[in-house]
Amino acid sequence: MTKQQQARQDMKERAQTGLVAAVNNSALEKIKNVQQTLEMSKERLSKAILSNIPVEHIISVGLTLLRAKPELLACDSVSIVAGMFQAAQLGLSLDPILQHAALIPRRGEGGALHAQFMPMYRGLIALARRHPDVVNVDAHIVREQDKFRMVHGTTEEVVHEPAFNVPPKLNNIVGVYAIVKLKGGETKTEFMHLSEVYSIRDRYSKAGDKGPWATDEAEMIRKTAIHRLAKYLDLSPEFSRAVYLDQLALTGVDQHLQITDAGVSHDTLPGDSKRKTATYLPPSPPPEKQPEMQPAKAVAEAPATPFDPVRPEAIQPYKLAIKQAVTKAQLVLVQKAAKNALSAGQITTAEIGALQEMIEEREVEMDGKSRT
After folding, report:
1. Rounded to whole angstroms, what are the CA distances from 220 to 62, 121, 205, 343?
2. pTM for this prediction
3. Does 272 reside within a domain?
């Protein structure tokens, strides 16, 4: 190697070293920024969490997650911190070992990267099991060499004997079922053929066969069955909210999760660009007594009276959620959230009636688009 070639090689190595140092400094600065924001928000975070997990542990897990997933560092600080708050508000851990929830980088409007909160299969199971009327809920994959029998009728019966002696690679998946057992002894089961699961994935998931569908396909298949079963159950506001946010993440719609004293809102943090107001459903306070489990019903339309006016500010978050909904399943979740808000005294019967009219109009729009 000549002196000139050696000089070029040395210059190239110095440039690469400088680039790596710059990237590392940028990453450290982002982690430091997030840590400072979390430290300043300890009091708000402690009010938001639904579990007895110490705030310090939540912050530690969040920062460890950032160091383990450098791709998150390209996301804006607002979405990272708000995603951590949302996990705490639902009582779900971002610890990868527990697999309750995750933060997923998504490119939003304008091409900017945002961290989106995504509940995982185990997180949805944990939320469902918190309902006082739920004894157990789970989802299982059925493979072609398993012994599987399912009977519908006055009573439901599921017999599933997995072929544990056959390696999964040699035993293809054919379907999945979700099952919930209630305190009264009633059992509800939902089976989905693998083709149905893939049809939903291809129709609604922006990532398609990439992202979690590529890295955790079995978990995503189970979660799809849980989603389907949840449509027929009236579970807690937290569960409904988690499913709604999950659908926004899967369809690539920006959740716009940000922070306020009341939980997650649309405030901005120093150093981050202004963003749109939140379009997710507001958190509902836990009722004194949870309602009994029953099939999900549409929110009943109620006429307004002179003593029951419609307040635009009260229904604005729901209007935005209806407008942004891309599936009828999301509209069902808006209905459930509105019903929970009515029970908590947050909205009136007249306001529910107004929301129901908007939902019906949105359904007509969806039907029109599907025919074209």
Report:
1. 23, 7, 11, 32
2. 0.60
3. no
